[in-house]
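A quick aside before the break. I want you to see a complete sequence-to-structure record at least once, exactly as it would be stored in a machine-readable document. Don't worry about memorizing anything.
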Amino acid sequence: MRVSVLHMAIRPNLDDNLKAAKTQVIKAAKQKPALIALPEYFSVPNCMGDFTDAAAISRETCNKTLDFLQDISAKIGNIYLLGGTVLQEDGGAYYNTSTLWKNGALIAKYKKISPIDCELKAGVAKGSTPLVVDTEIGKLGLIVCADSFNAELVKTVAGLGAEIISLPVAAMGAHPPVKGHPLTEAMARNYGVFVLKVGNVSSSMRGGRSAIIAPWGILGEVTDAPEDSILTAELDMEKLRAYRAKLSKT
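That is the input. The structure line, written in tokens, reads:
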């Protein structure tokens, strides 16, 4: 099964971000993947560079981004689209929300359970419900960036049967420099999952380098080039399930 993650250079305004995302999604769709994934906060100008007011950012970006995701999902048809994240209002609170689309329809959404300090200070609320979506291409677990540091959450998502974990990241603010993918490689190996880690150009040096990771190693990762790029890999689901069967006996 083929999947593509879209590593983006985040622009200084919403429209340019959406235009770039559209170009990349359409280009990726020509490779005929089963799934395409976008980064955390991919549409937010400067990727949260001036992140102080969640409500204001939501008003500026949320509805237009969701409209874009619906439209582009309809255009690419029978390909799952993991729509990065948006700041979405729900019941008067603002959540860092990851969405899953197909054929222009919203299939599922997940609210980040572990916002980082700068998000909390800006008014981002904590989600509370882990999510795994059962699809014909496999069981998709949705987490976001710092959720990967939440060991209990990752264990719960794996326990719900996730075979593929979507991990849009931004690695913003005071995130320390990280070489390689130690956390996500351990996640893939320990729980028998594929991890789709999808970040942006500025996040690469802080551990947000986009990569597709299997329990047996890194299937691909982006380069240091400061430009949009598409990373595509084949996920061997039979090999994964054989690995998981052995893992369950240990």
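Two observations worth writing down. The chain is about 30% helix and 30% strand. Helices lie at 14-29, 54-76, 117-122, 151-159, 182-191, 237-248. We'll return to this after the break.
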